């Protein structure tokens, strides 16, 4: 199907220029929002309909709305960039559209045609183009999401859905100023189990991670790292980022996609960039005991996490129980920095894009 035309409902009172300029001068991640949002409805009778770009505002939900009771909800996260020539671009939006539908299938939700997903993302960037922040690492973070909107109490897939896209001007994800993050290994909580929803980008996965994340913060760490549910031995991912390990021979390891971790789009890009740089990348299980032993022996030289929000983030220190170990010199390593620089240069149009990842608007 072709994407329908979007009805534009202009904001009657958009944020004033001076107020907007102050808000995006140094925005905290996910705290500032643009004037508009995209809304599309689905019903079994009509299919996808009522596509609108409208003023951002509160949603009105009946107390019996299905999502509030049965948690049928999925989302995506991607960024739009302002390039050096003043144009705008999206990074791997087709991959986000495909992953969105993979999540929808797992959560028994209606699939959104990929061309409609992409059109909706383009619309929000176009209408709120004056919200791009000029800070280092600045971008428009885009949050497409969908929830079960049928008013019904009964355990079944919803017959109605509401898809929306909101946008948030952002700078760097981590504000601590530290050269690398500190991780807490959760040995009491797991993020996902085989056969569960670990590979879907649904809110429940993140809700399940919050108690462990809170524990990590309380103990003075930046993030939590989860182990597998079966053996509590194999490293899986952080609360919202995939992991990579760099060894003294230059090779990289990342946990395999076995259904319990999110197939990160940044993760996939890093694998491609590393292989094209002549590095060996292995997708294989890596145990927490081995991580510590390799770090202490010097065989492991770097570790980093990656994701849309934080891009590429070096790991400096890891704590499990009463034991801590340092990765390399405790700061960014050469391979981590090289891969981040390559990725960011493509995202921002500062380097050739042989992969067709960048969609200019």
TrEMBL record:
A GO molecular-function descriptor: L-leucine-2-oxoglutarate transaminase activity
Enzyme Commission (EC) number: 2.6.1.42
Catalytic reaction(s) noted: L-valine + 2-oxoglutarate = 3-methyl-2-oxobutanoate + L-glutamate; L-isoleucine + 2-oxoglutarate = (S)-3-methyl-2-oxopentanoate + L-glutamate; L-leucine + 2-oxoglutarate = 4-methyl-2-oxopentanoate + L-glutamate
Cofactor(s) needed: pyridoxal 5'-phosphate
Pfam families noted in UniProt: Aminotran_4
PTM-bearing positions, type N6-(pyridoxal phosphate)lysine: 201
Pathway involvement of the protein, from the record: Amino-acid biosynthesis; L-valine biosynthesis; L-valine from pyruvate: step 4/4; Amino-acid biosynthesis; L-leucine biosynthesis; L-leucine from 3-methyl-2-oxobutanoate: step 4/4; Amino-acid biosynthesis; L-isoleucine biosynthesis; L-isoleucine from 2-oxobutanoate: step 4/4
Biological processes, Gene Ontology terms: isoleucine biosynthetic process; L-leucine biosynthetic process; L-valine biosynthetic process
UniProt protein name: Branched-chain-amino-acid aminotransferase
Native source species: Sphingopyxis flava
